[in-house]
Write a structure and sequence with these properties.
single chain; alpha+beta; Umud Fragment, subunit A; 2 domains; eight-stranded antiparallel beta sheet; four-stranded antiparallel beta sheet; 12 strands; 24% helix; elongated
């Protein structure tokens, strides 16, 4: 018996709704939009909600920010960047916080030496110019610390009320999700970073 004889004579007819060109086009467009949305969220941009006051006055409780993931994969991380990263394991023990992702500001890069004297922060023996809004006093001091290769030292802008690298250590580059580049909610505080 040949293959041609075994195959059915007629292919099954498409459902009536599929024959409607307009409906079919809308369905294809919806699937493409859904796939594109998933890819953009996974690899390019993602929205985050700010649950605590550790970044006040820069970010307030309830703010919503947009994070650029590509800037970490293809760019550089600099002092002053506000980043979102996977919470290190020590955060739960040091701060009693079980949130999965954190947002803080980078204040020292791999290989830098960071320390504080009073309310002043020094990176590589130079006074850190905090050209961003932040709350003083510093609170917990920063002992002289060398940031390991591949790691970053981060602080919350609300220095006296932030559980950050002073308490639980460094943020590995592999844990960084992306850089905050836009606060989009509330609209009255819309702004670029």
């Amino acid at each position: 018996m040949s293959d041609a004889a075994a195959a059915p004579e007629h292919a099954p007819a498409a459902p009536a709704w599929w024959k409607s060109r307009g409906l079919r086009n809308w369905l294809v467009a919806l699937v493409v939009a859904l796939v594109a949305s998933i890819l953009v969220r996974t690899y390019c941009f993602e929205s985050y909600f700010i649950p605590s006051g550790s970044m006040e006055p820069t970010l307030q409780i309830g703010d919503r920010v947009m994070v650029d993931k590509l800037s970490v994969d293809f760019g550089t991380i600099n002092i002053g960047d506000v980043i979102v990263f996977k919470s290190p394991g020590a955060v739960a023990a040091a701060c009693g916080d079980t949130v999965a992702d954190l947002v803080k500001r980078v204040v020292a890069l791999p290989g830098d030496t960071i320390a504080s004297v009073g309310n002043r922060i020094y990176v590589n023996d130079h006074l850190l110019k905090e050209n961003w809004s932040h709350n003083e006093p510093l609170g917990r001091p920063i002992p002289t610390t060398v940031v390991p290769k591949g790691d970053y030292y981060v602080l919350g802008d609300n220095h006296p009320n932030s559980c950050d690298s002073r308490y639980w250590g460094f943020v590995p580059r592999s844990s960084i999700i992306g850089k905050v580049f836009l606060r989009y909610w509330p609209l009255t505080r819309l702004g670029w970073f």
